From TrEMBL:
InterPro entries: SBP. It comes from Pseudonocardia alaniniphila. It holds the Pfam family SBP_bac_1. This is ABC transporter substrate-binding protein. Belongs to the bacterial solute-binding protein 1 family. The chain crosses the membrane at residues 12-36. Keywords: Membrane, Signal, Transmembrane, Transmembrane helix, Transport.
Length: 429
C-alpha cells in the first residue's frame, strides 16, 4: 500500500470559497403545490408549530426556509421548536409530546428511523399520495417515509456517511475496508502508534449503531436483511470481522466520539480518516484562528457500505390545522427549498433535480461522490420498535469494541425480541 501515500502537501485547490446564492431557473419557477398557491384553502389564522431537533445546516437554512414561508403566508406563520442535539433525547421528547395529546404540535421533523414508530402509534397522519408527485424524490429517502403500505411523511433532507481522508498523505482513497485497515497500519508504523486512524462516531447513541452497521456491511455481513428479518447468526463471521476491524482502526480505547468531536479530531491532523455526514465538509474548509485547515478529500465509504440517514416531515395526528401543516411540508420539500437547503445549508437534498443543477455541480465537486453514496446507501429497519433494536445492538457492539467481549450467544434472539417490542429475549419465537 506504500504507493498510495504521499509525502508532500497540496492545497485543496478544488474548493471555491463562498456559497452560491443563485438558483437554477427551472427551480425558481417551480410551483410548490396547488394547496400552497391558494392560501385561502388553509384553515383559519393560526401558528404552525414544527417540533424538530437541532438545525445542523450551515447558516440555519431550515429557519431561513420557514422565514420564507412566513413572508408568503403571514396568516399561517410557522415556528420551529428545537429540541436537544442528541437524537435519543429528541425522540424521547417528541414521544412525550405526542403521548400527552395536547395538540400543540402540527409537524414533526422525524429521524428516518422514527417514522414507522410514530405511524404505528397513531401520532402522525398518512398523506394523500394522489396529490404528491413522488417521482421527483430520490427513491431511498422517499422509501423511509412509507410504513405498512401508506405514505406518512415527505423527506426533508437525506444523509449518508462519507469517508474524509488526508489527501496530502494518500494518493487515492481506499476501495475496501481491508485497504483502509492497511493504510492505518502503515501510517501508524511510519509515524508512531499515537496516530488516530479512523475518527468515527463511537459514543453510545445511534451514531455507534450506524458506524457498526457500515463496518459490518463492508465485511460482507448483515444484521437485518431487506425483508426486515434479523440474520446476524447467518453472518457471524463477517459481523465479527467488521467489528474487529472497527476496533483496530479506531483511536486507542475507542473514545466516545460524536459528529462534532470526530470533526475536531480530524481537523487536528491526528486522524488519517474520518467517517462523517456531508454537512461537515464545509466545516472543515473554514479557517479557525491559530489552526491551519487540514488538507482532505472525500469519497464514498469503502465497499459502498454507507447507511441512509436523514429527516422526514410528518403531520401530527392531533393538529387542528392539517391542511396548513401539509402545505408547509410540501413547501419545505419542494425543489426550490431543497436547492436552498443543500446549496446554502449543506444538507443533502431529497429531490433529484438538485443534483443535476450545473451551478451546484461546479461549486461542489463532491456531488458525484455524494450521489454514488446515496445510491448505494442501505436503510435501517423501518419498524416501530427500531429504537429498542438499536439500543440492544449497540450495547453488544459497545461491549465488543471497548471490553473485548464476544457478541452474546443469543444476540439473534435479543434482536428479534427487540424488533417485536419485547424488553428481554423470549425463550421461544
Amino acid at each position: 500500500m506504500m504507493a498510495r501515500f504521499r509525502h508532500w502537501e497540496r492545497p485543496l485547490a478544488w474548493w471555491a470559497a463562498g456559497i452560491v446564492v443563485g438558483v437554477a431557473a427551472v427551480l425558481l419557477t417551480t410551483a410548490v403545490t396547488a394547496l400552497v398557491d391558494d392560501p385561502g384553502r388553509l384553515e383559519d389564522n393560526g401558528e404552525i408549530v414544527i417540533l424538530s431537533g437541532r438545525d445542523d445546516s450551515l447558516g440555519g437554512q431550515r429557519q431561513e426556509l420557514v422565514n420564507q414561508w412566513n413572508e408568503l403566508h403571514p396568516d399561517s406563520r410557522a415556528r420551529i421548536v428545537e429540541l436537544s442535539a442528541l437524537a435519543d433525547a429528541q425522540r424521547s421528547e417528541m414521544l412525550a409530546r405526542a403521548q400527552s395529546g395536547r395538540g400543540d404540535i402540527d409537524v414533526y421533523n422525524l429521524d428516518v428511523t422514527w417514522t414507522a414508530e410514530f405511524a404505528d402509534a397513531g401520532y402522525i397522519q398518512s398523506l394523500d399520495e394522489s396529490r404528491i408527485p413522488e417521482d421527483g424524490f430520490l427513491s431511498g429517502p422517499l422509501a423511509t417515509c412509507r410504513y405498512n403500505g401508506k405514505l406518512w411523511a415527505l423527506p426533508f433532507n437525506t444523509d449518508v456517511g462519507l469517508l474524509y481522508y488526508r489527501s496530502d498523505l494518500l494518493d487515492l482513497p481506499p476501495q475496501t475496508w481491508k485497504d483502509l485497515e492497511d493504510d492505518v497500519a502503515e501510517q501508524r508504523a511510519r509515524s508512531g502508534n499515537d496516530v488516530d486512524g479512523y475518527a468515527g462516531q463511537f459514543a453510545d447513541y445511534e451514531g455507534l449503531t450506524v458506524n457498526a452497521l457500515e463496518a459490518i456491511g463492508g465485511a460482507g455481513g448483515s444484521v437485518v436483511d431487506e425483508s426486515g428479518d434479523v440474520v446476524i447468526d447467518d453472518h457471524r463471521v463477517a459481523v465479527t470481522e467488521g467489528l474487529d476491524r472497527l476496533r483496530k482502526i479506531a483511536p486507542t480505547g475507542v473514545p466516545a466520539l460524536d459528529e462534532d468531536s470526530s470533526t475536531q479530531l480530524f481537523r487536528s491532523g491526528k486522524a488519517l480518516f474520518m467517517r462523517n455526514w456531508p454537512v461537515k465538509f464545509k466545516t472543515l474548509t473554514e479557517d479557525l484562528e491559530g489552526a491551519p485547515p487540514v488538507t482532505f478529500d472525500v469519497a464514498p465509504l469503502p465497499s459502498d457500505s454507507g447507511v441512509l440517514g436523514g429527516q422526514n416531515l410528518a403531520v401530527a395526528a392531533g393538529t387542528d390545522r392539517p391542511r396548513a401543516a401539509r402545505a408547509l411540508i410540501e413547501f419545505l420539500t419542494s425543489e426550490r427549498s431543497q436547492q436552498i437547503l443543500f446549496e446554502r445549508g449543506g444538507l443533502p437534498a431529497t429531490r433529484k433535480v438538485v443534483y443535476s443543477d450545473p451551478v451546484v455541480r461546479e461549486r461542489y465537486e463532491y456531488v458525484p461522490t455524494l450521489e454514488r453514496a446515496l445510491e448505494h446507501a442501505k436503510p435501517r429497519p423501518a419498524q416501530p420498535h427500531y429504537a429498542r433494536f438499536s439500543q440492544v445492538f449497540r450495547s453488544a457492539v459497545d461491549g465488543f469494541l471497548r471490553q473485548s467481549a464476544p457478541l452474546p450467544d443469543d444476540i439473534q434472539d435479543q434482536l428479534v425480541g427487540a424488533l417485536k417490542g419485547r424488553l428481554a429475549p423470549a425463550s421461544d419465537d
